[in-house]
């Protein structure tokens, strides 16, 4: 699971675990997926607000065995954190960012409709990093 977080191939490790464990393939996939998700989410939290003692207590409440708690804590709070954290940031899905944003305010001074006269309208155009463009009018 740690190797997967660091972007390394872990097929061989999973195969060895599957051969030695008395678990079905579905159970093993469920466990590995849970461990991966738990570690990935723990690495997202800043160390300034995330305390090791609280993390260990939370894992105990989830009835995770003590040897796993020690291993998880060493990954989240140990010297492998920067590597795992960096890879987790690179691999996460990202939303498109704004590349260009233009706007203007139009005020109709004279129209055939009195209700529209002197009412401003705001026009905006936004281009995103995925190539899409959106136009808005308020």
UniProtKB/TrEMBL annotation:
Domain of life: Eukaryota
GO CC annotations on file: nucleus
One Pfam assignment: COMM_domain
Family annotation (PROSITE patterns): COMM
COMM domain ranges (all copies): 97-138
InterPro entries: COMM, COMMD5
Family: Belongs to the COMM domain-containing protein 5 family.
Record-given protein name: COMM domain-containing protein 5
Organism encoding this protein: Lamprotornis superbus
Species lineage: Eukaryota, Metazoa, Chordata, Craniata, Vertebrata
């Amino acid at each position: 699971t740690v190797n997967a977080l660091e972007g390394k191939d872990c097929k061989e490790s999973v195969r060895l675990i599957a051969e030695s464990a008395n678990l079905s393939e579905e159970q093993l996939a469920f466990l590995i997926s849970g461990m991966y998700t738990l570690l990935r989410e723990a690495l997202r939290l800043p160390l300034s607000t995330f305390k090791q003692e609280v993390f260990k207590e939370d894992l105990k409440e989830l009835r995770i065995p003590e040897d796993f708690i020690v291993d998880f804590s060493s990954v989240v709070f140990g010297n492998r954190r920067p590597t795992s954290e960096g890879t987790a940031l690179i691999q996460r899905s990202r939303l498109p960012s704004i590349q260009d944003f233009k706007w203007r305010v139009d005020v109709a001074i004279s129209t055939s409709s009195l209700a529209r006269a002197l009412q401003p309208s705001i026009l905006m155009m936004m281009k995103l990093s995925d190539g899409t463009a959106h136009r808005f009018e308020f």
